[in-house]
Amino acid sequence: YDSEKFDPNLSRLTIPFNIKYGISGDLSFAQFPNLVSIDFYGCYNLNSINISENEKLRWLNFSVSLYKYINCKLIVNGRQLDRVLVPVDWNNAAKMKDQCIIPYDLVEDRTLEQLEAEVKKLKQNLAEKNQQIKDLQTETKKKPTLHQFQELNKIVLPGSELNYVGLKEEIKRLKLKDFAPYFRQQKDLYDQLTINSKNKAGDNLKPILELFLQTRKQIIEQSKRNDGDFAKGQLQGQLTTCQTLLQSKFTQEELQSLLNMQEEILKLEEQSNSLRV
After folding, report:
1. 136 near 122, Cβ under 8 Å?
2. Could you tell me if 42 and 22 are in contact, meaning their C-beta atoms sit under 8 angstroms apart?
3. In whole angstroms, what is the distance from residue 18 CA to residue 52 CA?
4. Which segments of the protein form a coiled coil according to its record (predicted)?
5. Sheet holding 25-28, edge to edge
6. Residue 208 to residues 128, 171, 189, 201, 235: CA-CA distances in angstroms?
7. What is the pTM of this model?
8. Which of 123, 241, 253, 262 has the most Cβ atoms closer than 10 angstroms to its Cβ?
9. Closest CA to 13 of 58, 73, 71
10. What is the DSSP letter of 145?
11. What is the rounded distance in angstroms from the CA atom of residue 119 to the CA atom of residue 112?
């Protein structure tokens, strides 16, 4: 349009409806610093409407008849986001509902394609952040709250103020009190099973049985440390050799039962040690 037809000191500007001479391209109102309101009644094939330098602008109005023609970006100064009123119909219009308002400080010296790519990236980042927030909220729900700690403290240490270290030690003490008898019972059963197995093995196979149990223990410890496959393979081969030799006196079920009992005792020993720390 011919800007010379308009007074640069205008406070209100009307873009008339004119099918033959419709406006196109990028439209800026920088030369009208005193504008308070703009009424659009004709603006076809616009790429963008830039009001970022119109600090006094408070109202931007679009004729309903434009919605089937207009499909552009509205570029504003970040300070204008809460000061310039845009009709609700702007967001409800068929072609405008998927458009967005772009702060001016993001778009200087950039093409429309670059802006659209930037907006797409920002939306993706926002979606990722929203997902992170949801994940954190889900994780937070799994963690005990202060109220839950206070309730637990009332049960374990009634009449005392909440103290995490004291609460932790008291829970460990109570757990150990219940755990210790069971652990001793299982340990006695395993020791007796080991003695009986050594007696059955006899003098010749007793060292093989001891090596069998020691090798299995090393394999369990290595799996916790995630040691290399080579060392684990060597131990597994040694275990298989011992097992083959022991089968002259023991059934497969007897040897497996002994190994299962050994593994259970190792787990109980680990629990016992953690409660005593």
Report:
1. no
2. yes
3. 25
4. 112-139
5. 25-28, 46-50, 73-76, 101-103
6. 59, 42, 21, 9, 14
7. 0.43
8. 262
9. 58
10. P
11. 10
